[in-house]
Amino acid sequence: MFVSGWEEDDEGIAEKNPEDPAEQMLTAAETGDIALLEKLYQRDP
């Protein structure tokens, strides 16, 4: 039976914190939400 080393490789992966301003900006950038990026930047340049 073939076992891939990638199947269970969750070590070192942190959960996203939706309350973290940096994480909010990264998520908005990843999804292309320009309006949210502008709003977050104005709130905390």
Describe the structure.
- With 45 residues, this protein is mainly α.
- It has a domain at 16-45.
- 47% of the residues lie in helices and 0% in strands.
- It comes from Parascaris equorum (Equine roundworm).
Topology (elements, then pairings):
Elements lengths: L20 H11 L2 H10 L2
Helix pairs in contact: 1-2
Protein name: Ankyrin repeat domain-containing protein
Q: Main attributes?
A:
single chain; 45 residues; mainly alpha; 2 helices; Ankyrin repeat domain-containing protein
The oligomerization state is single chain
Strand content: under 5%
- Which regions contain 5 or more consecutive residues with pLDDT less than 50? none
Please provide the ordered H/E string of secondary-structure elements: HH
Question: How many helices in DSSP terms?
Answer: 2
Q: How would the global form be characterised?
A: elongated
- The count of β-strands is 0
Gyration radius (Cα, Å) is: 16 Å
The residue fraction in helices comes out at 40-55%
Average pLDDT for all residues = 84
Distance between the termini: 53 Å
Specify the structural class: mainly alpha
**Biggest beta-sheet profile:** none
Region (Disordered): 1-22
Biased composition (Acidic residues): 1-12
Protein name: Ankyrin repeat domain-containing protein
Organism: Parascaris equorum (Equine roundworm)
